[in-house]
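Protein record

Derive tokens from sequence
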Amino acid sequence: MELGYRKIGDYFVPNIELSSNNKRVNLGKYGRMREYYLKEHKHGLFDYLVMTETIISHLESIDKEAKEYEDLLIKQMAEKENVNEKLKETDQLEWVQKMNNIKNSAQEIVINELIYD
């Protein structure tokens, strides 16, 4: 296999392209965050995943795992703080405030544990 190059500015960059069965898919929030993190901070890992054509499956996996983990954390935190349907019926504003705090906390945990590892 011959690898071609293209000139960008003063540098020659290899022409690396994903095979047709590994083209870009619609990623969720966490998949896109992971991709950005890898591009900006983990160049070696990102390049390896691209060259082995496993980047898409990696990002999809992280996105799915992060969403499931976030849902689990929200459920557990809401139960722990007694944020339930009864509170929603009696004081909707307080319920919304607490759920927003819980969701933000869960997202922060997911981002720190799964995205920026």
